[in-house]
Amino acid sequence: MRYRAEEKVEAMDVTRKSGEHGRRALLVDDNEAVRGALHEVVKRLGYDTDAAAGGREALALFETNHYDVVLTDLLMPGMTGFDVLEAVRLRNPKIPVVIVTGAAVYADDRRVARPGVVLVRKPVDIAFLESALTQVLQDLE
Prior knowledge:
The chain is built from 4 helices and 7 strands, in the order E-E-H-E-H-E-H-E-E-E-H. With 141 residues, the chain is of the alpha/beta class. The strands form 2 sheets. A 5-stranded parallel β-sheet has the order 3-2-4-5-6, with helices on both faces.
């Protein structure tokens, strides 16, 4: 099932409850509609989720909270998703990062092709996102 920000989240066929995995996710996206939609998707996949509108806000949340995974948009004003990735990894090299983007980035890009980092394309395929979250969390265990 693909999901676009304009679609209704209620239509998703996901029955898990927030926090079911006992994991926390930090979501970063400058687009309010996309951020809100992905927040609901990740929450419905069973993660307790906080959302930030940009890299600086995300890093402030990261400094004061525990997260098991970070999901970030790539193209944002100020800090890019790659900047967020590097800043998070400086603070904790074992934090998995999911880069969610519609930009032309290739999975073999050296910034993406490493353990604990996975690329998810927009529009987001929910089953693929769930699989990517599982994979990226296992990569660094």
